[in-house]
Amino acid sequence: MNRTDWETVIGLEIHAQLTTRSKIFSGASTAFGAEPNRQACAIDVALPGTLPVLNRGAVERAIRLGLAIEAEIAERSVFARKNYFYPDLPKGYQISQYELPVVKNGAITVQVGEGEAAYEKTVRITRAHLEEDAGKSLHEDFHGMTGIDLNRAGTPLLEIVSEPDMRSAEEAVAYARALHTLVRWIGVCDGNMQEGSFRIDANVSVRPKGETRLGTRREIKNLNSFRFLQQAIDYEVRWQIETLEEGGTVQQATVLFDPERGETRVMRTKEDAHDYRYFPDPDLLPLVIDRAWIEEVRSNLPELPQALRRRLVEAHGLTPYDANLLTASKELADYYLAAVAAAGQALAKPCANWILGELAARLNRSGIEIGESPVRPTHIAALVQRVHDGTISHAGAKKVFEALWTGEGQDVDAIIEAQGLEQVSDESALESLVDAAIAANPKSVEEFRAGKEKALNALVGQVMKASRGAANPQRVTELLRRKLTG
Amino acid sequence: MSAEPLLTSSLRELAAALAERRIRAEALAEAALERAQSLQERLNAFITLTPESALAAARAADERRRAGNVSLLSGIPLAHKDLFCTRGVRTTAASRMLAEFAPPYDAFVVERLADAGAVSIGKTNLDEFAMGSANEHSHFGPCRNPWDTSRIAGGSSGGSAAAVAAGIVPVATGTDTGGSVRQPAAMCGVTGIKPSYGRVSRYGIIAYASSLDQAGVIARSAEDCALALTAIEGFDPRDSTSLDRPVEDHAAALAAADGRLDGLRLGLPREFFAVEGIDADVRRAVESAARIYESLGARLVDVSLPRAELAIPAYYVIAPAEASSNLARYDGVRYGYRAPDYADLDDMYRKTRAQGFGDEVKRRILVGTYVLSHGYYDAYYLQAQKLRRLIAEDYRQAFDSCDLILAPTAPTTAWRLGEKGQDPVQEYLQDIYTIGANLAGLPALSHPCGFDSAGLPIGCQLIGPYLAETRLLLAAHAFQGKTDWHRQLPPL
After folding, report:
1. What is the full DSSP assignment across B301-341?
2. What is the model's pTM?
3. Of A418, A449, A464, which residue is a domain's last?
4. Which position among A220, B365, B404, B445 has the lowest Cβ density within 10 Å, counted as fewest Cβ atoms?
5. Annotated catalytic residue: which of B74, B95, B133, B156?
C-alpha cells in the first residue's frame, strides 16, 4: 500500500478562555499575569463550606458563540462534576458540562487553501460546553517540590468540540483559524494563544481510503499555535501510517507535541485513563436559558465573518480570496468597511487593494496592529478618491501614503499640494508635450497607425518623461489616440 | 435575677429578662460557659468553647441594649454545630482532617445569628462530617446523652441537642442531611426543626451531601425554634440552591395562634407503624401523641407512603455519592491535615486521607466512589435518583389527603455507646423515618412526646409539605401548650 491509499481523519477540541472579568463560579479576577495565588479566593481554593455561583457573563458568551455557529442553544443544560485528584485541581473535581451541554449541533464553513486550489469546507461542531479551568503546577524553582498557582483555577472556558470532519492538517488549521477569528470577532475570547486563552487538542486517526469506520485515534494535547497544530498533525499522521504499514497497531493514547524535536510522545494510554465519575453537580441548579435571553444576545451580535465575506464578494465585487483576507479579524474588516464608507462603495476594490497591499505590508514589517496604524481609513479613502479622479497618479499616491505613514502629513490634499503631486490633466498644458512626442517619434507613430497598440505606450512614456511624471497618463493616452487616429 | 434560669427558661423568657434588664447578656454568657465547662467531661458536647469572643459579644450586646434598639435574639447564648464555618475559630467537622482548620469567613447562619446579637459560646460535637446517627464517629470522642451518659446523644448534631437538653444554651444550630437535627433532638428530649431544602443558605456549612444538607435549629420548644429559624431563613446569593422568597415570621404566627388545631388533617403513614424493629414504647408514645393532637381538634387520617422502606437504600447511595466528591478537596495540598511522611504524590494522598478520615467517613467515600464509577452509575446512582423522585411523589400524594404527616422520629430511644458499633447497617436503619423528608426536600420537626420504660425521651415527628414550616411549628406549639414533655429536665 502506498501513502495515497490512506485517509486522515481529524477532530478538534478547542478550549477558549472567555473574556469575563471574573471567574466562572467566583468573584475573583481573571486577569493574566498576577503574582501566584493573588487571584484565588476562598471558592477557588475550595475552602470547606464554599459554594459555586454561576457567572452569567460566561453563559452570555456561550450563547454568542452558539448563535455565531448556528447551533442550538439548550433551554436546559446541566453542570456536572468531573472527579479526579490532582494538586492543581482544588476541589478534587472540575465543574464542567457533560451529558447536557449549553450549545450543540453547530457548524462553520471555512476557506481552505489559496488561489485556484482554494475550496470551502464545512466542519460540524458537535457541542460547546462551559467549564472551569484548573490551576497550574510549577515544577521549577522548588527543589524537588511542586508549587501550586491557583490564579487560573476557575477561569471560564468554553470547550468547542468538532466532529471528525477534517481530512488534512490544512483543513484542521483552516478550521482552527476560522474559529480563532470568530471568537475574537464576537468578543467572547481574546484569542491570546501565548497566554493559553485558545488551546487546541487534536484527535487524529488514519484509515484506508474507502473505509467508513474510524481508525484508532490519538489525541494531541494542548497545541498553542497553528504552526504546531500543522506540524503535530503532519508528524502524527506520518507516524500512524508508518506504524500501520509496518504491521503494527495504533493504541488509543493521549500524546504531547514536542516542538523542538518535532515529535509527539505518549503522555498516557487508555489503560491508565481516569474514571471521572461524572454526576450532576448538586450545588448548581440546571442552567435554564429562555428565548428572550437568546434573542437579546442575538440582537447584539455583529455581522459575522461569513456573512460579511459573502457581502464583500457580491456587493463590493471583491474576489473570495480578498474577502477572506479582509475578514481575518474584526479590526481589519472594520478598517476596510470604514474606508469604503468614506470612499463610496464604487471604490471598494481599490480600497481593498491598498489595505491588503501597501498597508498590510507596512504593518507587517513594523509589527504594528491595524488598530494602531498611523494611516487611518479616511486617509485610504481620500487617497483612492484622488487617484480615481485623476488628481494624482499611482506613483504619487505612494508618496502620499509614505507621508501619512511617517506622520509627515495628516491630510491627503495638503500632502498632494505640499509635494506638488497633482497631475497635469489640463489639455492645453499637455498638448504641446504630446505634439512634441509625436514629432520626435515617427517610428512609433507609424507602428501604431499600422495597428500595433503597444506603440502607443512608448509615446505615452515619452510624454510622461517630458512632464517629469506630472502628466496624467490617462489623459495623455486619450489625447495621443485622438491626435493619431483623428 | 441570677443566671440559674438558663436551665429551665425558654429563649422567649430569657429574651424578656434581657429586655427588662433583669439579667445582662454577659452574665448569661458566663453562666452558659460555666455550665458547658462543668459538663464537658460528662457530656463531651463541645469540641471548642470560645469564652473570650463569647464574653466580648455579650458585652457588646449589653452595650447595644443600653443604647436602645436591639433584636429579640440579642444577648441570647447559643452554640453552633462544628460544621458551620466560624471566622477565625477552628471548624473541625469533628475530623482529624480539619482539627486545626480556622476558616476566614462565617457561614450564612452564623453571620445571621451574630447580626441578630446572639452570643455563640462555642462549637458542638458531631459525627465526623455529619456522617452518623449517634455522634459516636467523632475525632474528639462521642457525645453523651444528658438523660443517661452511658448512652448516645444521637447524631449527627448530637452536641447541639445535648447542649440544649443539658441547659447549657437555650438554642443551638444543627444540620440535617438524613435526620441529623431531628434524631438527636428526639434522643435528647428537645425540639428540632429541619426546614425545606433551600430555606436556609448552605453557604459556610461544610458539605456532606449537597442535595440533602439543610441547616436547622434545636431548642426546648417549637416556639423557640420558630424564633431562631426566622432569624436564619432568607435568600443568599452565595448559595445557588437558596430560595428567593420572602421570609415568614414563624414566631409571629405562633403568637397569634389560639392553641387549637381544628380541621388539621394529620396523616399517619401505615407503613411507618409497621416497621420491623420499632420499639413498643416508641410506638405507644407516638400513638398517644396522635390522640393528643386529636384532642386539639386535629383529624387523624390513614395515609400511605408505599416506597418508604426504599428511602434508606436510595439515601445510602445518593448521600455517599455526593460525599465522595465533596470530600475530595481534603487532599492535604492546601489546608487541613497532611500525613507527615510520604514517598510521592499518590502516597501523600493515600496516607493523608487514610490517617485524616475516620472509618465511617472512609466507608461512605468508598461506597460513593463505587456507585458513581463507570459501569455502576446506572445501576446505583441513577436508580437511586429515580427512587428519590418516586419517594417525593409518594409524599406529594399523601399530602392530597392530609396537611401534615405524623410519625416517630426514630424507631428506638437512645442506645448504649458502642452497642451498634460493629454493624453500620443497624445504625443506618435508625434513619428510616427521617430520610424521606430529606430526599423530598420537605420541612420536618421532632418534638418530645414521652419517655420509655428506661426513662429515655421519645420523639414525635411532623413532616410538612414544601415550605409549610409555619404549619409544622403551629402544630407542635399547640401540642406543647397541652403537654409538658418538653419541660422535663435530665437528671444531671
Report:
1. EEE--TTGGGHHHHHHHHHHHHHHHHGGG-SSSSSS---S-
2. 0.92
3. A418
4. B365
5. B156
